[in-house]
Amino acid sequence: MRDDGLSQAISAVGGVSELARRIGISQPSLSSWSRVPAERVLTVETATGVSRHRLRPDLYVNEAIVPSGTIRTRSDADMARADEYTLLSALLCRAPSADLLKRLSRLQVSASPIGVAHAALAAAASDTTVAKAGQEFFDLFIGLGRGELVPYASFYLTGFLHERPLARLRGDLQELGIERAPENHEPEDHAALLCEIMASIANGTIPVDAEVEQQIFEKHLKPWIGRFFGDLEQAEHASFYRAVGHVGRIFIDIECEAFALPV
């Protein structure tokens, strides 16, 4: 039996098949859910517009409960970081839907570097269509044989897929009790999955202390993902995704600076 949060998500998009399509899993896999899995909450929120607090009120309250029994309060900055990682994960996982493009066109902007990058992304979302963005996504990340870019840590760090960076990441995730969802066939070192993991850490869904969070970032994202976003920003086939690359590059620069500050 589905809980209220999952039922709302399904209703918001018009059915199980559509929700499965939007989040990139099979209909039978989604049909087996009784509630939205913790690792899928942010993806479902992005795909449906149903807030994480409605999807999993047991996880998303004003405070995040950590295993020790203590209460770890998430700051506004943490939640903003989680939102940024969630956005990047959603855009790197699949081509944007019409609903996501519409919401992107209304992004809040400011005079800060990330606010200016958001303004450019909002303009790019307004100027593109689902078909154009979908073709870009195919050309950039899938292609006929291979896309223009290969968004995996192993490839960026060694020139090959399924190499030592992936093995090291899997070892660290196993220590944290994080396993790849059975319906997800992408290696864990895909940029979208790494952004999703960082989002879940930042918002407290994956409860780790600040030191472990920094280690995950510096070991598995910092060595390559900024370079990837820079390549996306300059990619031949990028138009809408050029703005995505710009947001990603600016955000990762901010993360690098923040983690470098003394505690």
Automatic annotation (TrEMBL):
Pfam families: Nitrate_red_del, YdaS_toxin. GO terms for molecular function: DNA binding. The lineage of its organism: Bacteria, Pseudomonadati, Pseudomonadota, Alphaproteobacteria, Hyphomicrobiales. It comes from Variibacter gotjawalensis. The keyword Glycosyltransferase does not apply. Gene3D superfamilies: lambda repressor-like DNA-binding domains, TorD-like. This is Chaperone protein TorD. SUPFAM superfamilies: lambda repressor-like DNA-binding domains, TorD-like. PANTHER family: CHAPERONE PROTEIN YCDY (PTHR34227), DIMETHYL SULFOXIDE REDUCTASE CHAPERONE-RELATED (PTHR34227:SF1). Keywords: Chaperone.
